[in-house]
Design a protein that fits this description.
The protein is α/β, with parallel strands linked by helices and 255 residues long. 30% of the residues lie in helices and 17% in strands. It is built from eight helices and eleven strands. The strands form two sheets. It has an eight-stranded mixed beta sheet. Strand 3, helix 2 and strand 4 form a beta-alpha-beta unit. The protein binds fructose -6-phosphate. Fructose -6-phosphate binds next to loops.
Length: 255
């Protein structure tokens, strides 16, 4: 994969790509995903929500509008969803995906797999999603963002490396971090369904995008400390093909 000329490869940490700005890091992630889909139009992508991937999705939409790519054969799996929200609720991750990506390009709705947060039986919904994930074989590229507490998906500190799709309680730090992103709700839902750490590690390739100084501590712990449930993203170190895309601010503490 061609990386931008501003990339700094840390010799002692393979596959860590550092860019001067968040925009450039996101551009490189978009290029990574576009190259994946060009190589295999039937790729299975694992997708994240949150502020960090918004610029990535804008670049994918731009490439589609310019006629450079089609996503019609791509299958997607989102990482997580808040419990209690319908897909049309503006604060649901389903609505986010529609606004930022799916509704702006030629994704086939039959191939965009989302967790339904608006169900009575959340355990059954987690089971349904786990089955769908299993049926797909393996995700080709899993895109991740990073929680300030080191979470990946909604696998909060304490999550085991062999965890699978399940219902979780969100950490206080996550509730505070996500509060400013709310559109209609006044407080962040306290429960969610997330794919597990084992599910994330099952992907053929993992692309982590972390930008901004608020992520610097979690980036350092993930890359510099031994894998531990205290920092779920540290388990990424056990995967054979993880790419970290960082801006200078997020990379500031890995020295
Ligand atoms: C989102 C998700 C979370 C976010 C993380 C970072 O689907 O699973 O792990 O990736 O909380 O969120 P932002 O990008 O808003 O800082």
């Amino acid at each position: 994969m061609a990386l931008s000329s501003q990339t700094t490869a840390l010799a002692q940490i393979p596959r860590v790509h550092i860019f001067p700005t968040a925009g450039e890091a996101a551009d490189a992630v978009a290029e990574h995903l576009l190259a994946t889909v060009k190589r295999n139009p039937k790729s299975v992508l694992g997708l994240a929500t949150g502020q960090t991937p918004r610029h990535v999705y804008a670049k994918l939409v731009h490439a589609f509008r310019e006629g450079k790519i089609s996503f019609c054969d791509v299958e997607t799996f989102n990482l997580d969803e808040y419990c209690g929200l319908t897909a049309s609720h503006p604060d649901s991750f389903a609505a986010f995906m529609q606004r930022e990506l799916f509704g702006l390009a030629d994704f086939d709705p039959r191939k965009t797999n989302l967790i339904n947060g608006d169900v009575q039986d959340v355990v059954a919904e987690a089971r349904r999603y786990a089955t769908r994930l299993k049926e797909s074989g393996a995700v080709d590229v899993q895109l991740l963002g990073l929680g300030t507490n080191g979470h990946i998906g909604f696998n909060e500190p304490g999550s085991a490396s062999d965890s699978h799709v399940r219902v979780v309680d969100l950490a206080d730090e996550t509730l505070s971090a996500n509060q400013p992103s709310l559109i209609e709700l006044t407080s962040v839902p306290e429960r969610a369904i997330t794919i597990g750490i084992a599910d994330i590690l099952h992907a053929r390739e993992i692309v982590m995008l972390a930008t901004g100084s608020a992520k610097a501590g979690a980036v350092r712990r993930s890359l510099r400390e031994a894998p531990s449930t205290d920092c779920p993203a540290s388990f990424l170190g056990t995967h054979h093909a993880v790419h970290w895309y960082l801006d200078n601010a997020a990379a500031a503490e890995i020295g």
